[in-house]
Amino acid sequence: MALPQPTERLARGPIVVKECVVEIAKKDRHRIIDAIRSVQVPYPEYLVAPMRQELTDLGARECRTAADVDAVVASPGVVMMVVNSVCGCAAGKARPGIGMALNHANKPDTLATVFAGADVEATDRARQYFTGIAPSSPSIALMQDGKLLYMIERRDIESRTAEAIADQLTMAFDRFCVAPTVV
């Protein structure tokens, strides 16, 4: 079937349009699928604002751009970067677990967050620092000098309670966030 040009008047109305779309879809389905996957529509701010606030109330610095992420990652000491999310395991496990863990004596020097699905550019940039780790949200990374030290991925979060995540984080804090002793 020869496809009508966009400027041609379609004599048979919707039938020709449907045939045209079906024919294009058959030929270019992989390109169409890739194009659909590449469209990233961020969550509306009114939806994510309360979830952002849970971490900013704990002292997290919001990173909304790639430049914000780079600036935080360049901070001295240990940086905890949280990839926040709208999902239930972020709400019921990750954010509460982070809150509990930050009451520990040893903790990161800097706490920062990006929001997956809202801060698209910032989230992509943060994930570039998580070398060897597949993208997941929520997730929690400890970094120093731009290098990944420790990571809790979504699969580790969704199978644990908030208390277990807090325990996991405090063990990591005791390992990576202790000031060296001067002898």
> Which architecture of the largest domain does the CATH hierarchy give at level 2?
3-Layer(aba) Sandwich
H/E order of the elements?
A: HHEHEHEHEEHH
The biggest beta sheet, please?
Answer: 5 strands, mixed
Mean pLDDT value: 87
By DSSP, the count of extended strands is 5
Biggest sheet strand order reads: 1-3-2-4-5
Distance between the termini: 82 Å
Q: Structural class per helix/strand content?
A: alpha/beta
Q: Mind telling me the CATH superfamily name of the largest domain? A: Glutaredoxin
Q: Low-confidence parts lasting 5 or more residues at pLDDT below 50?
A: none
Percent of residues in helices: 40-55%
If helices are DSSP runs of H or I spanning 4 or more residues, what is the number of helices? 7
Secondary structure layout plus pairing:
Blueprint: H1 14-38, H2 45-56, E1 61-62, H3 66-73, E2 78-84, H4 88-101, E3 110-115, H5 120-129, E4 139-144, E5 147-152, H6 154-158, H7 162-176
Parallel strand pairs: 1-3, 2-3
Antiparallel strand pairs: 2-4, 4-5
